[in-house]
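Protein fold
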Amino acid sequence: MIARAECNERLENFDFAVQLYEAVIGDFTWIVGKWIDEPGAPPSDEDRCSIECLIVALNRTLALRPEAPNSMDLRAGLARAEAILARK
C-alpha cells in the first residue's frame, strides 16, 4: 500500500496518495496503542515493520496535507510511534 501511495504521489495524484496513506494509518494505529501499554518493551520484528510503515504514512500525509483538520492527531501519533520504535 505504501508503494502504491508513493507511486501515486510521484504521478501527482496527491488526493489518492493521501487516501492510501490514510488506509495504512487506519490499519496500523492500533499497534501503537498496544505498545504504549507496554512501557519500555521493544516491539517485535513484525510489529516494528508495521510501525515503520505507519510512520511513513503519517509523515507523508502530514507533508501532503499539513493543514488537515486532524494534523495535530497525526503529529501526536507520529511522536508515539517514533518513541516506540526507538526502544531497544
